[in-house]
Amino acid sequence: MIEYIIALVIIICVIGLFFVIKNYMFPKLDIVGSSMYPTLIDGERKHSRRFFNRFESPKIGRIYVYRDPTNKLVIKRLKMVHNDLCYFVGDNPTMSYDCRYYGFIDKKRIVALLME
How many CB atoms are closer than 10 A to CB 29? Predict the structure, then answer.
């Protein structure tokens, strides 16, 4: 009987760990607005990957989630990197409020990489 209880506890722990990893390390993001159109469409849901910058440097052309100067989460494409500063722009420049307006972003403010 004790073996069944131990097995049940292990199964519950594994399932719980799976959901924590899936939802915390790879959260889904709701796309809001048209600043990244046609790449990302308003209302879409995309996966992201947290903790990328501890293992790799930001790469030009990829789409990242970062905190802008007002601390709002923003999804934009990386255009340029200079030392630890990154320059992000939207794919739809006429509808995008991005680094063209508020300047470079420290790479420490990058939260996640958008999974394609």
Answer: 17
What does the CA dihedral 87, 82, 72, 65 come to, rounded to 10 degrees?
Answer: 80
| Residue labelled with tokens 């899936």 | 22
CB 88 within 8 A of CB 99: yes
Q: How far apart are the first and last CA of the chain?
A: 47
8-38, pLDDT tens digit by residue? 888 888 888 887 776 666 777 778 888 999 9
Q: What are the residues whose beta carbons fall under 8 Å from the beta carbon of 51, sequence distance 6 or more?
A: 25
CA distance 67 to 3: 48
Q: How does pLDDT run across 31-88, given as a tens digit for each residue?
A: 888 899 999 888 888 878 876 556 678 899 999 999 999 999 899 999 999 988 999 9
Report residue 65: phi and psi, to 5°.
-110, 125
The model carries a pTM of: 0.78
